[in-house]
Here is the input.
Amino acid sequence: MENFWNWFIGEAGAAWIFGVLGILGVVYTWLKRPRPPKVIVQEVERLKLLDIHPSQREKLKVFYIDPEGQQAIENLEQKKVVIYNTGTKDILEPVKLRMRFYQKIEKVDKWKFWRFVLDNPECTLEPIPPDKSSSWVDIDVQIPYLNSYPNHKHYLTGYLISDGEMEIELVKRIGKGWSSRYVTPQAVRKMETRLGLPIAIVTLLLVIFFPPAVFRLTKQQPGGLWETLQTVVLVFALVFALLMPSVLGRIPFVALRIRPSKEFDS
Here is the structure.
C-alpha cells in the first residue's frame, strides 16, 4: 500500500489524475456545447387498444362517429409521438413538417379508420390530396415555434389512432436554420447494439491491462502493490457490472441526440 501511495503522490500519479480530469472536462464541454436547432419526431409508445378474436368480431362492434357518418373498427391501435428541438437555440419561426402515413390495406380506395391529432391547438394539420393509386397520405404539420428542449423542456405530443397498424415517415421539412429526423424504438435498439458492444470490449480490455500498465509506470514489482491493484480492479469491475446496463442504455440517446421515452410519460 505504501508503494501505491508513493506512486499516487508522485509525478506519474499526478499525470494520471490531471489526464483523467482533462478527459472529463473535454466530455463535459462537448455535452454542454451550443448545438444548432434540430427537430426530432420521436415515436415513444405504441398501444393495442382493441384486438378482437376473429370468432368474436361479429358479436362485438366499435364505431367511430362523426358528422360524415360512422366507421367500424376491428383492431384499434395508438402511436404516441413527440416533437421537440434538441438544439440549444429556440426556433422562433414557423416549423413545417410533412409527415407520411402508411396503412396496410387490400385496396387503395378503401382506407380503414385513422386520425392524427396534436395536443396543441395552435398547431395546424393540412392534408395533401393523395394519388388514387397510393397507399399513403401526406399531412403538413405546422408549428408556430419550437423552443429548445434542453433549456425549456418544450415539446408537443401527437397521437396516431388507427384501425390496424400504420407507419409514419418524415418526408420533408420546410424552414431554414434547422434540421429534422424521425426516430423509432427500432433505431434506438440498433444504435445500442452497434455502439454498446465495442464500448464493453474496450472497457474489459482496460480492466485486464490496467495493472501491468501501472507496474511499468511505477517500475514496481508485483507484491503488496499487486494485491492492492487486484482489489481496486475487482471493485471497479463490480461497479462497472452494476452500471453497465444504464451506461449502455444512454449511448443511443447521446449518439442520436434524442431523449429517453420515459421523459415524456404523462
